Amino acid sequence: MASFPRTGEIAAQVKAVLERLGVSPDRLSGPNAARSPLTGEVVAHWGALSGSAADLSEANPGADPAEAAIGQAHAAFLQWRSVPAPRRGELVRLLGEELRAAKADLAALVTLEAGKIASEGAGEVQEMIDICDFATGLSRQLHGLTIPTERPDHRMMETWHPMGVVGVISAFNFPVAVWSWNAALALVCGNAVVWKPSEKTPLTALAVDAIFARAAARFGGVPEGLSTLLLGGREAGEALVDDPRISVVSATGSTAMGRAVAPRIARRFGRAILELGGNNAAIVCPSADLDLTLRAVAFAAMGTAGQRCTSLRRLFVHDSVYDALVPRLHQAYGSVPVGDPREPGTLVGPLIDEDAYSAMQAALEDARVAGGLVSGGERLGAEDALDAYYVRPALVEMPFQADCVAAETFAPILYVMRYANLDEAIGLQNAVPQGLASSIFTTDLREAERFLSATGSDCGIANVNIGPSGAEIGGAFGGEKETGGGREAGSDSWKAYMRRATNTINYGSTLPLAQGVTFDV
Ligand code: NAD
């Protein structure tokens, strides 16, 4: 069984790792306390003038940090858009190199600040490196189509141009990877970036800002403000949302946040990439490989302490395998090592804060009222880490899909329900407002293909025989309905960071009009 860290031992570690990552101490002052979920203790301080926007404000006294960051980013964009795309890719390649060099320390800081277990902290930084590699290659592939025209001696084509400044608003649970998914693509596409990270994870953002500065210094001649860090809470995010110089707002967080920002961005006809809440399900069919299913469900539902947008929250199990699978799940839930995420054996670290714990307890109470059988969910380790919130993940056998099941609770709760036929299970899976990730466990080809078809899962991610979480950067990431509809990372997601121009060129000496229109003057 894993142990729990003791209050007082984290601050010194955070200080040391920030130093190694090159975050200057003058960045670490201000009225706001940064806390570690490992113990709940204050580990550093920060202010709105802590990020790179501070330098820009100093260069432009009187301007507030958001104004300074956005103004400089816009000026930087006007230069950066003329740098050839493969050259822009070189900057991102260098960023990938700097991230490789900093991987161990940045991963450790992700663990200390966001509470991820060590291998998930390292995985998050690896994801940053992967997207840099992807974007570097992409910088030579930002190509458009050549399209046959109906007019003689004409050529029609598409060209792709940068949008301008991309504002990135990110959530606490992927404190560094979400920036990189956006920034790596935005930069090779010729945009500038202003990043407003979660107020719960300012330190990892400061570290990434320092890492980017090293890549920029090696590249040489990067316009000042090309990538800027704007620290703050909701108001700092709103500054990006409302400013017409922010051409694209990429906002990752709760559906409530998306509901607030989407109409404001739409009002000024800005472009939004929304990556919001999920309420992800898996269906376990009669033919499922139950050993594999058990492992996949355990990782997807308990991994990251249930604090991934793609965490598995609803499990529909066919009547015929329910009694073979669910007791084994109970065993896994009862024995999974919960505790200090720095220890190699730990699989479940802390919740981010007390609010997360309270929301989890409230959801479990609602489940009980609706007839659910709750096991787990209790707080652990409070005697060692007074202000930290470690919990045993909760497994809840539900008689039906109650309202509490249809809402996303950002904590390790897995609701388990029985089903009798696949149509019913797919219907239940789709009968929630969110549409991010989904899975089916089956060895029956017909069931698998049905699930992936137009009449199957309505989610942006639909998997067979793997859980809904743990996506790779090569695919487009995002979901439908209240998840917001945005797509990031691989495939053709880069198009969201560029504007498309359709060009028709007449290389003849006559002027034929389209659709046979005549207009002779
Ligand atoms: P949150 O919504 O509380 O905050 C996310 C970010 O939005 C923060 O930076 C916050 O300061 C900012 N923000 C909040 N309200 C705002 C407003 N009105 N205007 C501008 N900015 C605002 O989310 P959280 O608790 O940090 O993260 C958890 C949530 O994020 C979960 O719902 C999870 O599913 C979701 N999430 C989604 C994805 C995805 O890709 N779909 C990825 C990670 C997290």
Explain what this protein looks like in three dimensions:
Belongs to the aldehyde dehydrogenase family. Its EC number is 1.2.1.3. InterPro entries: Ald_DH/histidinol_DH, Ald_DH_C, Ald_DH_CS_GLU, Ald_DH_N, Aldehyde_DH_dom, ALDH7A1-like. By secondary structure, the protein is an alpha/beta fold. It contains 15 helices and 23 strands. It has helices at 11-20, 53-59, 65-80, 85-114, 118-138, 177-188, 202-219, 234-242, 255-267, 290-302, 319-335, 354-369, 403-406, 422-430, 445-452, and strands at 32-35, 42-46, 146-147, 154-162, 165-169, 192-196, 227-229, 246-252, 271-275, 280-284, 312-318, 373-375, 379-380, 390-391, 394-397, 413-419, 434-435, 437-441, 461-464, 476-477, 480-481, 488-489, 498-506. The protein has a 7-stranded mixed sheet, with helices on both faces. Helix 1 runs antiparallel to helix 4. The radius of gyration is 25 Å and the shape is globular. It starts with 10 loop residues before the first helix and ends in a 15-residue tail after the last strand. The structure holds nicotinamide-adenine-dinucleotide.
Basic shape:
globular
Low-confidence stretches: none
Mean pLDDT: 97
Helical content (DSSP H or I, runs of 4+): 25-40%
In this entry the ligands are: nicotinamide-adenine-dinucleotide
Question: Main sheet?
Answer: 7 strands, mixed
Rounded to the nearest angstrom, the radius of gyration is: 25 Å
